Amino acid sequence: MAIAKAERLMNLALCLLGTRRPLSKRELRDSIEAYLEAGSDDSFNRMFERDKDDLRELGLVIATVENLDGEVGYLARRDSNRLPPITLDAEEAAALGLAAKVWQQARLAGAASGALQKLRAAGLPEDVDPYEAHGALEPRIPVHEAAFEPLMLACRDRRPVAFDYRKANAAQPETRQVEPWALECWRGHWYLAGWDRDRGAERVFRLSRITGKVRSRGARFTAPVPDVVTVRETVASWAGETADRSALIRLRQDAGYPLRAKATAVRELGDGWDELEIPYGHGLDAWLVEFGPDVVVLEPAELRADVVDRLRAVAKG
User: Fold this and answer.
1) What is the pLDDT of residues 97-127, one digit of tens each?
2) d(CA 193, CA 185)
3) Alpha helices of 19-147 — where are they, by DSSP H?
4) Nearest residue to 129 (alpha-carbon basis) of 102, 187, 90
5) How far apart are the first and last CA of the chain?
6) Which of 136, 204, 250, 281 has the fewest CB atoms within 10 Å of its CB?
7) How many CB atoms within 10 Å of residue 231?
8) Is the pTM of this model over 0.85?
9) DSSP class of residue 282?
């Protein structure tokens, strides 16, 4: 079905770009095989209107012209749909090549490679290699969660979703209705920021805790979407990146290396344990629970209580 629709859209775009005069619905229907197979005029009209809207959303400028007889025709003028010449210097091309190498998933890697090929065809200088190594860094953003791709598309299309989400202190997942804003990667973990419809507030969800499939919802967004900077600040806060206090923990030796990397002070206690002072922000309790018996919270008392509550909830499950 997806291939058939893509072929139909391509044929419609070629018809509209290739004509020198506006084409009526009747003429377009006679020219495109998929429209000839439409069962009725109503079915064709609905299909045509959807296809026209889809092409416009993809960026094709379609003009609507009414002739002297009152008949409406359509065409896509080449001067309105021609991109300006692309001029990229070596540094800009290198930046694009570096971005294309970030993704490890085959699907996204293919899309990035295809985009660079289109730039080459559109005038990227032949002496510039966007894939050439420009330093010792080889960027990678690993994505293992099945929810990443459907959520990425939902963020792009501004489409509400529903999914089952298991909080760190819960034994069973619960369904969440979310208007997705953006996906952000923090400390090797992916997070979704969006508007939680059931709670009427912004929330951040860690993708590794989403269970089952992400389901799309047909309704539109009800809450305004903040700018990218605000979304990143929200994710940073919920992911525990904006710490304004310190916590004192005991950590088993030869364990918890991510915690050791964040520690501002380390003291050896003996008997196989170390004492660490680490930044304390929102979400630290959920992170500490993941280390299980290798971590003991000493202070503050509220953090210790939160960790104990989460561990008890897991034990009951």
Assistant:
1) 666 665 545 455 556 566 666 666 555 555 5
2) 11
3) 25-31, 33-36, 41-57, 90-100, 106-121
4) 90
5) 43
6) 136
7) 20
8) no
9) T
Sort residue 174 into left (φ over 0), alpha (ψ -120 to 50) or beta.
beta
Task: Determine the Cα angle at 110 with ends 106 and 115, to 5°.
Answer: 155
- Kindly indicate the confidence band of residue 274, based on its pLDDT and cuts at 50, 70 and 90: very high
Higher pLDDT, 138 or 192: 192
Spatial separation of the C-alpha atoms in residues 38 and 36, rounded to whole Å: 5
Place of tokens 């922000």: 281
- Give the full edge-to-edge strand order of the sheet including 265-270: 265-270, 273-280, 245-252, 295-299
Give yes or no for a contact between 16 and 62, defined as CB atoms under 8 angstroms apart.
yes
Instruction: Name the residue among 230, 233, 267, 231 with its Cα closest to residue 251.
Output: 267
Given the DSSP bridges, would you call strands 201-206 and 265-270 parallel, antiparallel or unpaired? unpaired
Mean pLDDT in the chain? 80
Q: How many helices (H) and strands (E) does the chain have?
A: 11, 12
Query: CB 195: neighbour CB atoms within 10 A?
Result: 21
**Strand 174-186 relative to strand 161-165: parallel, antiparallel, unpaired?**
antiparallel
Tokens representing residue 161 in the block: 């979703």
Closest CA to 194 of 169, 240, 230: 230
